[in-house]
Structures are given as C-alpha cells and as structure tokens.
Amino acid sequence: MATVTDQERPKVLVPASWIALLALVCAGVIGALYWLGPTWMQVHASLDGAVAPAQNPRMQDVPANQTVAVVQIKDAQLTAMLSLLQRWGFFRSATVTKLKERDPARLIQQSGLQATSLPVDWDQLARLDYPCLLDWKENDGDVRHAVALMRLSATEAVILDPLLGRRVVSRADLPLRVDGDALILWKALPGITVPLRPRKGRDPVVAALQQALHKQGLLRGAVTGLYDAPTRAAVARLQATHGLKATGRFGVRSSMVLSKRVMGAKAPSLKAESGVPLQSSP
Q1: Distance CA 144, CA 136 (A)
Q2: What local confidence, expressed as pLDDT, does residue 68 receive?
Q3: Positions of the chain with pLDDT under 70
Q4: How far is residue 220's CA from residue 215's CA, in Å, rounded to a whole number?
Q5: Of 57, 32, 36, the residue nearest 45 (C-alpha)
Q6: Which pLDDT score is estimated for 271?
Q7: Closest CA to 258 of 211, 199, 223, 220
Q8: What is the Cα–Cα distance from 150 to 83, expressed in whole angstroms?
C-alpha cells in the first residue's frame, strides 16, 4: 500500500479570519482564568488571612521574584477583593472552602456595594478615602497581581498582598509598583443613582439627592425634585470641598464622596485600618 509522505500530504490553507478568531478565543480564556475562573487557592484559611511566606507554610512555594502561575495570580485577585468585602463587614467568617464555588461578582452584588474602576491618581484616591484593589508589580519583569490598599498617608501605604502578606511601603514607591486602574468598592445612598439624568418635572432621584445635600449643609434651597440652580451649586460645593472639578454635574465621584460624608465612620477609610481582619477564621 502506498504511503503519503509529509511532502505529499495536501496543504490546508487557514483563512486569516480563522486565525484572528482563534487568537480572540485564546485571549478570552486567559482573561477568564485571571478574573473569574472557578479554581480557588487550596488553603483552609480565611480569604483575608494572607501572611508572609516565611510565616505561612502554604506559601513557601511562591517564587521570590513572583513569577507565579496564572492560578496564583487569579487567586490573588479574588482574595484581595474579598478582603475589601470583609473590610465593609461582609463575609467576615467565610472561608475559601465555603466560597470557592461562588462568583466574586455575585458576592459584590449580594453585599449591595458598587464596584467602580478609576485611573490611579494617588491624591484623588486619598480624597475619595476608600480601600481599593490595585495591580501590583514587585519587581521589573514580574507578573502583576492584585493587592488591597488598606491605608494611605502622605508618606506610606499599607497593602494586603495575598502572596506576601500585610506590608508597609513608601508612598513614593507606589508609582513604581502600580499601574492601570484602581477598583473601588463603595455604597450608593438610597434612592440616588448615577450617572444622574434628571427627568422633566419632579424627579424622585433628584429629590433624594437634594435631601442628602441639605442634611450635609450643602443645599441652600428647597427640596423641589428639580435639578435647579441651587442644586447645581450644592453639588459644586461638594465637589470643590473634596478636590473634584466643580462642574455642578452629579457623577460617580460626586456620589462616592457624598456617600462617604453621609456614612461617616460606617464606611471604611484609608486613614485607619480598623476593621481589617488579618487572622484566619476558625
């Protein structure tokens, strides 16, 4: 029986569009592994219970240069995000075993919090005053992984690094280690949605905003339900007070700072680490 050599085998021409589609699918799979894959860190510790590798035998195999596997990077993102949820008071007694099958986006939704991604601006993050997720690179050439920014002062920052534990770093070093966006969890005030698009006539969302502004001493007019000149002026005062551009338009950043003012000590702050659980749950 005659055989077909490599030279005699028919050549299959693959259209360029198929190659592009394959590349897109591969990129999507890698992205899914990073953000929402189902494999969780195989340890029986609290999601926020990250400690330095020298103190945690389960972390001994983490390479010193953090050239880590995709699963480790994904797990770091999930662990850091859940640490923020615990800072807000949610899932404090949860373990990885209990939550490993849960979708982290659903956990945020279940908590009733908002998740907003903003470009990293250290001064603005300090003014917004919310703990957040950052993409961290320990050394040049390292793969980035998620850490939770828990405190930020004029000179230093405290981060919760799922790979290396709780760390105090110089604020001057942050731009060398962090790039991209910060993911902030925050709580919207009841009845107020953003972006605010006022309706014609009396708008209940505008009325809820006016009531909150009035209680904060910012609105000097009546609660009309209309996005009128006094309301725009009140929003501009809020923005100017918190270092935002005083446009008078109520957007996400304006809602975040107003919520922080209304909630006070009930909202976590970058000025103190109170409420950060660093011990493993029983």
Answers
A1: 5
A2: 52
A3: 1-71, 95-97, 100-101, 273-282
A4: 10
A5: 57
A6: 93
A7: 211
A8: 10
Give bridge partners of residue 119 from the DSSP assignment. Answer: 181
CA distance linking residue 61 with residue 40, whole number of Å: 16
For residue 92, the model assigns a pLDDT of: 87
| pLDDT for residue 53 | 33
Q: Can you say whether residue 216 is alpha, beta or left, with left for phi > 0 and alpha for psi between -120 and 50 degrees?
A: alpha
Report how far apart, in Å, the C-alpha atoms of 244 and of each of 83, 236, 247, 253 are.
28, 9, 9, 8
With beta carbons less than 8 A apart as the criterion, state whether 143 and 75 touch: no
Structure tokens belonging to residue 46: 């609290």
**Distance (Å, whole) CA 144 – CA 186:** 24
Q: Which two tokens stand for residue 144?
A: 């980035």
